[in-house]
Automatic annotation (TrEMBL):
Similarity remark: Belongs to the NDUFAF6 family.
InterPro entries: Isoprenoid_synthase_dom_sf, Squ/phyt_synthse
Main location: mitochondrion
Name this polypeptide is given: NADH dehydrogenase (ubiquinone) complex I, assembly factor 6
Lineage: superkingdom: Eukaryota
Species whose genome carries this gene: Coturnix japonica
Pfam families registered for this protein in UniProt: SQS_PSY
GO cellular component: mitochondrial inner membrane
GO biological process: mitochondrial respiratory chain complex I assembly
PANTHER family: NADH DEHYDROGENASE (UBIQUINONE) COMPLEX I, ASSEMBLY FACTOR 6, PTHR21181
Cited function: Involved in the assembly of mitochondrial NADH:ubiquinone oxidoreductase complex (complex I) at early stages. May play a role in the biogenesis of complex I subunit MT-ND1.
Subcellular location: Mitochondrion inner membrane
Amino acid sequence: MAAATAACGMRPVSSPRLLRAVGARGGLLWPRGGRAAAAGWSRPEPGGEAQYCAELLRKRDYEGFLCSLLLPAESRSSAFALRAFNVELAQIKDSITQKTTGLMRMQFWRKAVEDIYCDNPPHQPVAVALWRAVKRHSLSKMWFIKIIDEREKNLDDRAYRNIQELETYAENTQSALLYLTLEMLGVRDVHADHAASHIGKAQGIVTCLRATPYHCTRRKVFLPMDICMLHGVSQEDFIRCKQEKNVRDVIYDIASQAHIHLEHARSFSKKVPAKAYPAFYYTVALDDYLYNMRKVDFNIFHPSLQKRNTLLPLYLYIRTWKKTY
């Protein structure tokens, strides 16, 4: 088993260790003060930026936290920083009541990235951790700017006009994050880039689906309008949590597009360097959600879809052992 994980370019990771990190702090990642350290965002303990980022992920991006644990040891803290940066940007839209406030926060991160590449990061734990990742792995600035630009454009509360618009958003956010992860792993390969593009699009689509029940409670629907119109479904139908066949058909079509992207990504698997595989383990979480959605006949409001799968760490471990994504 150790040989199998070594073949993936990974440091062997035991399932019990992963489970300890998920179920408890276990002495692995958490600084003294635990949640309190994460609460005081501008004042982590000295050298505790990686722990801060890990705690942020554990609360806000659980799947990303698990996947980061499975990266090689020398890349793990940088992965926490990358995903924490993504979380910081992603939560801006849901935490503001005025677009102007969101634009100001985006501008903070835009300037933070500029300052990071001038070796003058702001005194904010995610920014400091990101600066260390950039220095350690020579990460490309353009991907950070692209993510910020796309998140900023998405501050408007409107549905995607079509599935292509959603895919573009996913490409410029989730796929861009994967391109940075590949750089972090030292992978420069066109086939890995193609796989990352499709996985990122699948992740963006699934994220949109998963967030739909929450957005509906706020009387907001962001699902592609062209697919809704095709099945004669209005935004009000989703806001009222209707479960008729045409509503489920909308979800089926959107989920099918995510599945297609995953299949396309896997069509490159024999050409993708094994060193790149750890960047793509998020597919385990995507597969799990799409499978559970099929089980409830694409009822996006089914309570089971809102529950965390406690077996996900085991599924991730099995995928690393099989050397697939």
